[in-house]
Write a structure and sequence with these properties.
heterodimer; A: 72% helix; globular
């Protein structure tokens, strides 16, 4: 039983990271119907920026997190302006191929600059190395930090989306782009702002995964990116609470499969879940069925 | 009979025979060295992959991101059989078994998932390919992550040409048949196609299974020429590479896929001297093509003899006007 609770706690920590990435996917998909394949790579860049802040400039955790998020925002908006905006009216497949191109460009561009080898985050000091014991269950300070920061960011995101003008504009554009434009909403600004939010969350996830798993490499974004997308689909793509639930579910599932089954199959199980959801309820857990009209 | 062996058929047969003979001559005289032969093999395998994916994505409009998965089924089946029966007969058996197995998996995966549309199907097929890769990574018979070594090279220019030309001819004839037209109508508008009585599920699955079959052949050829296979060769990136060929050539253009397969192979060969920048340039090229020519090189047009005639008559007219 203790092992079970321990796995749940590990799952929630991993799930927080997936949830942060999944939020970016789901918001971008909700607003421009694009699977932003480059999103996983924004997360990777975030991890590297955090790493350089901590090692080369000896900054603390919070400043590094903040700088990584800022840099990722710039990167995300640049991607949107350069690669996706000119293709607003192109076919879906053309935009998707562009997204894949951007993803490869960032991965191998980063690899060119920082080399392909795995780097490890500096060891944590002070309060961050502490851990708590509840019976036989161990909760590390890192896990608390990851979950804490994720929850803070999610509350902030909910506030922005539900309570601010720009959040209202985001919801309007994702509901009906043309109608929103007719109502005087600046669609381009709104789309850029969506990328700002998504990229900031991905950057935060990158730094958090760096301190949690301790190792980063230029191709680290591919698998978590795909799994976060699965999480977004699981919760219902385009729905923000859905991405959070999906992220935690996928994280816990993955840890459970590694813990009780065969860790080699954990990715396969995640994708099998994806195919099952798509067959049983393609609109996801929180999604509503929509009928296509002629 | 007249129809079957019309002048068009004769022209095509002569063209194919001439291409085969010419390359065979170059191989015998040693102009094509083993290095060029490698590139040629890659081009042929990529043509099979791209044309078969074009049937699924370009003509039927079903977006698949899992073509490498079918390829890996063919590659592993063929290698496992040729390791037991190391003869040409074993290779042919393995190739057919691999292709049929890939087609079967295609049917099993396609039947439920082809109800999904657009991006959802893309992600489902991506997941399917990842599951296949992870299964190969964990089976004993496939030797896990270390991969399998084939002792002999069974594929020579004869087999290469036979299967490449066969794939292209079969698929382009399929598209010209009433079944192929039904597939195209599904791409154009699925609801309208259903309304005129086309069983869209049947044709989508047919196209998917055919695509998987030929991908299986391509995989078998890959493993029988390059000796070595491992699960990582057939990952997400491989599926993307195939899709890039199709989109670069033009969705719905078979000649486009062939031209793109040749061009991209030449580009990646010429970039081999700067390995660290190879993928960066490749990616930048991809983005640039999509930004400036999203419909690909050929759009949905085909390169044919009549097109050449049209061009030459245009040139003649221009020259005549000046004179």
């Amino acid at each position: 039983m203790e092992q079970f609770f321990q796995q749940i706690i590990n799952g929630i920590s991993l799930g927080s990271i997936y949830a942060l990435i999944a939020l970016g996917y789901t918001m971008v998909y909700g607003i421009i119907k694009l699977i932003n394949f480059a999103h996983g790579d924004v997360y990777m860049v975030g991890a590297y920026i955090g790493y350089f802040c901590m090692t080369s400039f000896h900054m603390g955790f919070l400043p590094s997190l903040f700088i990584a998020m800022t840099f990722c925002v710039i990167l995300g908006v640049a991607i949107e302006k350069i690669a996706y905006k000119p293709l607003r009216n192109a076919t879906r497949i053309a935009v998707l191929i562009t997204a894949i191109g951007v993803s490869l460009f960032i991965e191998y561009g980063t690899m060119f600059f920082v080399k392909a080898d795995v780097r490890s985050y500096p060891p944590l000091t002070g309060l961050l190395v502490k851990s708590f014991k509840l019976g036989d269950i161990v909760i590390t300070m890192q896990q608390l930090l990851i979950v804490g920061i994720t929850v803070i960011l999610m509350v902030l995101l909910q506030f922005i989306v539900k309570r601010t003008r720009i959040g209202k504009a985001m919801r309007a554009v994702s509901l009906d782009k043309e109608a929103a434009e007719l109502m005087g909403i600046n669609v381009n600004t709104t789309i850029s702002f969506t990328f700002v939010l998504g990229s900031a969350l991905a950057g935060a996830a990158g730094v958090l995964v760096g301190i949690y798993y301790n190792s980063i490499n230029p191709l680290m974004g591919i698998m978590p990116g795909l799994k976060a997308f699965v999480a977004a689909v699981f919760g219902g793509i385009g729905i923000i609470p859905g991405a959070m639930i999906g992220g935690y579910f996928i994280g816990t599932l993955e840890v459970m499969v590694s813990g009780y089954g065969n860790s080699m199959f954990r990715d396969a199980v995640v994708f099998a879940v994806l195919i099952l959801i798509l067959i049983v309820k393609p609109s996801g857990l929180l999604g509503k069925e929509t009928r296509e009209k002629v | 009979m007249q129809k079957l062996l019309g002048s068009n058929f004769l022209k095509k047969a002569i063209f194919l025979a001439a291409t085969f003979g010419l390359v065979q001559l170059l191989i015998v005289t040693g102009v094509i060295n083993p290095f060029i032969m490698d590139t040629l093999t890659t081009i042929c395998i990529n043509i099979i992959l791209a044309v078969s994916l074009n049937l699924i994505t370009g003509f039927t409009g079903q977006f698949s991101l899992g073509h490498a998965g079918f390829m890996s089924i063919g590659a592993y089946t063929c290698t496992i059989i040729t390791l037991r029966v190391p003869t040409t007969l074993g290779f042919i058996t393995g190739l057919l078994a691999g292709a049929i197995l890939a087609a079967l998996v295609g049917a099993v995966v396609g039947l439920p998932t082809l109800r999904l549309r657009g991006d959802y199907l893309a992600i489902a097929t991506l997941g399917m390919a990842e599951i296949i890769r992870i299964i190969f990574l964990n089976l004993d018979i496939t030797n896990g992550a270390a991969g399998l070594f084939n002792n002999n090279q069974y594929v020579n220019w004869f087999w290469l040409f036979l299967f490449t030309a066969g794939t292209v001819v079969l698929i382009s004839n399929f598209i010209k048949s009433s079944h192929g037209r039904a597939c195209i109508s599904i791409r154009e508008d699925e609801i309208a196609a259903e309304a005129v009585g086309i069983n869209s599920t049947k044709y989508k699955v047919t196209a998917f299974v055919m695509g998987a079959f030929f991908a299986g052949i391509a995989g078998s050829m890959h493993s029988s020429y390059f000796y070595f296979i491992k699960p990582d060769l057939f990952g997400f990136l491989k599926s993307i590479n195939i899709l890039v060929i199709v989109v670069f050539g033009g969705l719905g253009s078979i000649s486009g896929s062939i031209i793109a397969a040749i061009l991209l192979a030449l580009i990646s060969t010429s970039l081999q001297s700067i390995p660290e920048l190879q993928m960066v340039i490749y990616a930048a090229m991809l983005i640039t093509i999509m930004l400036f020519r999203p419909q690909g090189l050929m759009g949905s047009k085909e390169l044919s003899l009549s097109l050449f005639k049209k061009w030459s008559s245009l040139i003649h007219r221009k020259n005549g006007g000046e004179a």
